[in-house]
Each structure stands twice: as structure tokens, then as C-alpha cells.
Amino acid sequence: MNSFSDFGLLPSLLKTLKDMRINKPTDIQKQIIPMLMGGQSAVGVSETGSGKTLAYALPLLHALKALEDEGSPVEQEASPRAIVMVPSRELGEQVSKVFKTLTHTTRLRVRPALGGMAMEQARRNTSGPFEILLATPGRLIQLLDQELINLTDVRVLIFDEADQMLDQGFLPDSNRIVNTCPEEIQLALFSATVSTAVQEMMNDLFASAEIVRSKGSGKVVSSLVTKNMIVEDGQRWPLLEKLLAQKIEGGTMLFTNTREQCDKLAKELTEKGHVCAVYRGEMDKNERRMNLRSFRDGKIELLVSTDLAGRGLDIENVGRIINFHLPKQMDNYLHRAGRTARAGRKGLVVNLVTERDQRLIEKLTGSKLVFKPRPNAKDQNAKDQNIKGSARDERQSRLSKATSAVAAKSASKSSFSSDANFKSKSYSKPNDPRAKSALKSEKPKSEFKAKTSSGKTEFKPKTKGNFKDRSSSAEESPKSSFKKGKKSFAFESSPKNEKTKSFAPKTISKNISGKFRPKKNF
């Protein structure tokens, strides 16, 4: 069947579908709608976003409107003819919107009795006559305990998102609700995955039901693009920053595994200047609903959540899913991925993958992931030692260069260094005549000229030693003296065992030009 008109639906319903521009049924709708319209119990297992809500809403409205047209309208108060069970208030409000668009022409009444709303409001909603009750298991049990609802006229009982409902421990409540309804009731169950609890319920309550699985059950939809990014050394945030810098159409849902991770990620996003909202358990329900509404309306582009938002929520403007922390179970992954690429639209899922997630991703992709090997403790210590050794060698090299520079600077300032000695040493042979000629041609720095008072007499000392004025105090070293004109000089020889002898004139002062002149004794 390639068209909804092939199912034999009421003209009012076909007109509504045409106005909504829904023309072609999905795979699960093609299989489920004929079965439910025929009064048969059924189990539909299909991927999220495949149109399961419309698959049971259309045949349900068709059957109830047909009863009314046949002259059997609902007249008794608080006595519905059909019950749709949902796991949460958010999903219930979402399903209620779908029914609202389909009941404009049929005029059938849908009344909610959901967890999270005040008990008094639930009582008022169910007080008058109506056709369809939309309820959570816990709230319906409360209505039954207070005898505020009558289920004796129920013809159809539907469990939507059964896997999430049963994961929350609603199986005993679900069994009680089924047992309260008439025996010849038509049952329907819809789920994206089949958990152990769902399988147990199928075995107990749906033993005679037809089980239908869509082609994409247990898989993500074909219009979904998946991108896996390897997390190295636990550094998730740099990868997330790159992703958030990329502009996309629609909002982004970021999933974590725990409430603590959810709050931590939301805090980091806020500190980095990103506006986001939180959607998780153990928070005020009104605040959670406001955050979801802001995200759905496009006022906030980032929604940080746990798996609570991974099931049942139908948000049209979700363009991207980021698994900041990947779940351990495949079912939870499929539910998260199902928040985007719904009803044939395109979507993107980005997974931040660590080694812990290797088995899950390999199961999804069918190929093996390769991670960079981590260095063991021994290799890491060796690497650290090499880094420390390189740093130490670099410091020693800098210190050596600095010491050499200081030594070179000191040598260049020494006033008694001998260029001739240096040149003589630069030759390979000590008796080389070139060295001797160089010594003759070069005057030692210790030479000086001394003139008499007449200005004609020169004195050039050629013997190495220390000159002292005769008036200076005598020392233990051997002395020799001589007179020249009116001047007298005292010469003190250096010890013979000293290899190097230098002049140290004691009575010589240095003039501005840098030459040495003897100091006169009076």
C-alpha cells in the first residue's frame, strides 16, 4: 500500500493527512494500520522517528468514530473506550498534540491524566464523557484506587514506548491495568527496541499478538549521518569546541550518562559562553518542561540531557546529536540517535569515542576501531628521563657559552697579555725563525721610556722584574740599585723558580695618554 487512501480510512482523516502534507505511509505504518483496523492485537518494533504514533492513532480514531457514526457514542462519564499508555508526561503531551491535529474534523475527545500534573487537574480532565484516555501508569493506578475512572468500556489498550515504560518498573502496574479492562480487549505495543522487560511483557500479555518488525528495526534510519571522533587521553572538550564552532540547522542535543555528568557539562558550556538548558531526572518538573519548551521553540540551541530525553521526544528542529558520553547499551544509543532525522528528515550523530566504547561502535559500524597504543609505565619513565636530560644538557650548554663569553671578555681587557708570546706559540716548531723574528718585531707591553730632566736620555729596561723606588720600604727579595743622572731606581728580581715574570712599577704613574712615566723622588 503506497497511499493512506488504500487503508480505507475515513474521508475526514484523509483530508487531515492531506492538509498536513503526509502522503506516503512509512514501513511500520504499512504493516500495522491494516492489522489494527481489522481488530487484531499487534506488536510493532521500529526505529525511532519511523511514525509509530501515527500508525496506531489513525486506526484508533477510525474505529471510535465509526462507533459514533453507527449510533453508539460515549455517554457515561469517566468511562473511556480507548487508553494510550505513555511512560512520561513529556511524551504524553507530544502524543496529545498528534491527536489534536487529527481530531479537528472527527470531534473525538482526548483527555490526559499524566504524572507531574496535579491530581485535581487529572480528576477534572477525566470527570466528563470522553473517548480516549492518555495516561501514565502511575497516574492511572491512582485514579483506579480512588475509583475516579471506569475501565469497563475500554475496547483498545495501547502501550507506546513500552521499553522505556517497563524500564522504569511499570510492569506490575501495566499488568493490573490490563486485568482491569475487559477480557476481549485489543492490545497494541510499540517500541524502538526489545529489552528483557519488553520481551517478558510480550510473552505474558501478547502471546497471541502479531509481531511486526520494520526493515530498520534495531538500526538507525538511513537519513542519519554518523561521525565518530576518537578521544585521546580523555580530552573531550577540545573536540566539543570544534563541533560547536560548526554551524548547523536546528538545535543540538548533548547526551551524558549520569546526572552529575549532565550538570558538569552544562556548567562548562555556560562558563565558555554557550547558552544551554538541562533536561534530566531529579529536577523540578516545571523547570524541565520550560527548558524543553525553550529548546523546541528554538530559543535555546543546546540541550544537555541524560537518557531521559532519549526516548519518545519528538522535536522537529533537532539537527544534531552529540554523544559526549556514549551509553553502554545499544538500545539507549538507538533511542538517542532517534531524536534527529525523524520522519524522513536528515540528521547528524557525532560520537566521542573512547576505548571503553570500542565494542559498541564496532557493533554499529561493523568495522574494527584502531586506537593509538598507550605507552607503558617503563616507556613513559624513559620518555620523561629523556626530556629531563635534554633540558639539563640545554641548561649546561647555555651556562658554558655564558662562561666562555665572560672569559673572552676578561682576556680582551687584560693589559699585560703578550701578543708576541701568542704568536710564537702559534707556530708548530718552537725554534722556528719566523717566531723569533716575530718576537723581535713586537715590543712587549711592559716596555716604557724614561727621560732625564734634560730630555735626552732614554731608559729601556730589558730585564724582567719589579721596579721600586728607593724610598720605598725594603723587602726580603734581593735588590740591586743604580743611579742615572739625578734619578735613582731600585730593581727587585723575581724568584728564579717562577716561570712567568711581570713588571710591577711601584713608582710609576700613568698619564692620560696611557704611557708610563717615572715618578721623581725629591
Molecular structure report:
- This protein is an alpha/beta fold and about 525 residues long.
- Helices cover about 40% and strands about 15% of the residues.
- It has 17 helices and 20 strands.
- It has a 7-stranded parallel sheet, with helices on both faces. It has a 6-stranded parallel sheet with strand order 8-13-12-9-11-10, sandwiched between helices. A 3-stranded antiparallel sheet has the order 16-18-17, with no helix packed on it.
- Strand 19 (about 510) and strand 20 (about 515-520) form a beta hairpin.
- Helix 3 (about 50-70) packs across helix 4 and helix 6 (about 135-145) crosses helix 8.
- It starts with 10 loop residues before the first helix and ends with a strand.
- Residues about 415-430, about 445-455, about 460-495 and about 495-515 have low confidence and may be disordered.
